[in-house]
Design goal:
Elements (H helix, E strand, L loop, with lengths): L1 H9 L3 H10 L9 H13 L1 H15 L8 H20 L4 H8 L19 H31 L4 H16 L10 H16 L4 H13 L1
């Protein structure tokens, strides 16, 4: 009984956690950027270590979600940098860059009740960030280095390389025990093969979409 009461006291409301998290956004000296870089690196090399850290945080701080916004700050930095490179590759002006940077929007489902069965809004947001970061680096950073010299060309190897990057980015699993992901991965593999057979350059299509979306 006493343990249950203590657990309830340690369990902050969603609003309180959100306020505490957002308040730390302006305190850069209190952010652990080195640890955030470590997490970004292991999202590619050993994602299980990142999710193991969520479990440790639950044991020590009674919450799965990150209480340090350093990861979000670094991800925002990468998003801004990649948007600048996109604007350069697509030859967009300053106004086009601003429109492209604001093109992505996020919706959140917040559960105010703090129960063991509920998923913390912050943890759900962290999972979203973890899933988005590898895709951002592959499609918004690595891909841009090869777009003008290779991917944008009307060659089969251009379609093969560009479409392979999309397959890697969308099919990259970052979760532990991902048997259920085999079903969507099968669909992705079929789309990948069909795109090569019909000569569809996915990157070129999406680049055109990005460009004319902000014009």
């Amino acid at each position: 009984m006493g343990k249950s009461v203590e657990s309830r006291l340690d369990c902050m409301s969603a609003a309180a956690k959100r306020y505490k998290y957002l308040r730390r956004l302006i305190k850069f000296d209190q952010m652990d950027f080195e640890f955030a870089f470590w997490q970004m690196w292991y999202l590619f090399t050993a994602p299980q270590k990142v999710y193991r850290n969520f479990h440790y945080r639950k044991q020590t701080k009674s919450q799965f979600a990150r209480d340090d916004p350093a990861f979000l700050v670094l991800l925002s930095f990468w998003l801004c940098v990649s948007s600048i490179v996109f604007a350069f590759v697509l030859r967009l002006g300053f106004l086009g860059f601003i429109k492209f940077l604001l093109f992505v929007s996020n919706k959140y489902l917040i559960k105010p009740a703090c129960q063991d069965q509920d998923v913390e809004w912050g943890y759900a947001f962290d999972v979203h960030l973890n899933a988005f970061f590898p895709l951002l680096i592959i499609l918004h950073v690595v891909q841009l280095f090869f777009y003008n010299v290779l991917i944008s060309q009307d060659w089969f190897v251009s379609k093969l390389f560009g479409n392979s990057l999309w397959l890697l980015a969308l099919g990259l699993s970052i979760l532990h025990k991902t048997q259920l992901l085999l079903y969507p991965l099968t669909v992705l593999a079929i789309v990948y093969i069909v795109s090569l057979v019909i000569g569809w350059n996915i990157t070129h299509t999406l680049m055109d979409f990005y460009k004319y979306r902000v014009l």
